[in-house]
Sequence to fold (589 residues):
Amino acid sequence: MSSSPPATPASATLRSDDSVAKQLFLGNILEENLFPYPEINARDKEMLGAMTDAIDQFLADKGAELKQYDRDAEQPAEFIQALREMGLFGLIIPEQFGGMELSNGAYARVLGQTSSHDSSVSLTIGAHSSIGMKGLLLFGSDEQKQRYLPKLASGEMIAAFCLTESGAGSDAASIRTKAVRNDDGSWTLSGEKIWITNGGIADFYTVFARTDTPEGKITAFLVEAKWPGVSHGPHEDKMGIRASSTTTVAFADVRVPAENVLGPVGKGFKVAMSILNSGRTGLGGGAVGGMRTLIRLASAQSKERKQFGQPIAEFGLVREKIAQMTVDCFAAESAVWMVAHLIDGGGSDYSVEAAMSKVFASEAVQRASYEALQIAAGNGFMREFPYEQITRDTRILSIFEGTNEILRLYIALSGLKGVGAGLSELKAAVGDIFNEPIKGFGVLGSYTGRRMREATGYGIDRIAHELSPRLRKVAATYEKYTVELSRSSDALLRRYGKKVADMQHAQKRLGDIAIDLFVGLCVLSRADSLLKQAHPAANEAVNIAEVFARQARRRMARNVRGLERNEDEAIEQLAGAVLAHDGYMWDVI
Ligand SMILES: Cc1cc2nc3c(=O)[nH]c(=O)nc-3n(C[C@H](O)[C@H](O)[C@H](O)COP(=O)(O)OP(=O)(O)OC[C@H]3O[C@@H](n4cnc5c(N)ncnc54)[C@H](O)[C@@H]3O)c2cc1C
Fold:
């Protein structure tokens, strides 16, 4: 059975520039951007076919070596040289600078292929492209691009992204690395970054430093590793992705020429966030590649292993795991490539969708690695088998490029911001109504329409796209809960106002409802397209859409209920007591 290629429609443009995710909080399904599911374009299809074959040929018989790199916590220089020769450092760099100019979708698919063999390989390539030199692509001047991109495309220069410090992790705006402007316009950079991927092998760093200029607090700089004062520490001894280089990077009064400021002075925080937002599909693609491998391994293992006189694949509890891994993988893949499409299609407001796909895909691959190891059981626990390494390697995915906690809060707060803006517009409109009646009534009209819809279900935002009849019921779940999300967000804001900003338990519930809606709609759209194309595995895809919708409905119902009735206060008190006691308070002695 042929696997359907992921969609990478660089040529297709979006029909609406609104954010699909943010619109969900307003009770709208932005179906013009979700249906039909994006198709792969001809250029990407051709390039991907060749690239994935080349990656398989190169990595398939290197299992033992890759395992050794994991033990040694290092990729040898000749291995990195081979990655260069395959062109893997030039994936997203424009052709005019010697790169392959892959779309976001194709790039994510390539990282999926490398991750299906080894996560550390994806990290080396991904940290270079997704974050290390992405800022140069997004914000670099023509001169900076001419100077660096050809070397970055060939891998002569490897890139790293230097934001995190010992005192500044999730709170990235609190960095202490400092850059002071000199009289000649150059800057003096000093400070230390920690846990920098590619830190020990990079020649080119995108560095964020506090500048405290009138223009703003943080500025981004392009820094070369060979400059006086730049150094890095030894490779960290990590739990997973051990072969990927992670080090401290220190800057001791490094002189940075004025022409190496990246983007506007003082706007470095925006540069950092834009890089991270646009890089998340790479991570998602890698997670999907890992899941494909886990499903293949788990299938083979469960058919081969016999207990109680039959293959364990015959047992319901083993089959349940294999099916759930498949649902998770299809859902993550559908969301990741939809987000890539939103970016490739020219959308500008995709950061919430990117966060949703990152949270879902990272947790899906962690569940899958847990379950695949459980199917392999004792064998799974042995280092001779690949499961333990995959479990270690995938653990990082919910920690870096924004922890999943921070991203859930970001998703909820971004959605609530739109709802809140509607409410304050309403307040202003009531005040303005006699001065500017047309403007005022317009706002009131759309607001009261939404409220009525929430209260009565009348005028609910039905998906107008002509869906296969089998998928209508699935669609109804998302139509219903989109209204629930909007109603709950509205109710929460009216009841608590600005205090909502401190209500993390409620934000998590809203974030999770929104993730289920977005991922579920991506699954629905893809299943519908596969059915219409008469894909050989279309029936299974519809099956997945039905299973995902039922599971999502139960989760969403619980989260909606939890916004009204919950044990948040007791949980807060309990955490307070344990923290005050510095630990667990009971024993049986
Ligand atoms: C292997 C590896 C590679 C990395 N590569 C890079 C890199 O290339 N470049 C780079 O700049 N950085 C890199 N990092 C750093 C990474 O991005 C950070 O670890 C991450 O941002 C989290 O920061 P932290 O570990 O300091 O956790 P903290 O921010 O201290 O968070 C600790 C815990 O508290 C939670 N938390 C924090 N704030 C809140 C809040 N407001 N509300 C609720 N919960 C909260 C977090 O979710 C987390 O569970 C890497 C890290 C690792 C481990």
The longest helix spans residues 268-304.
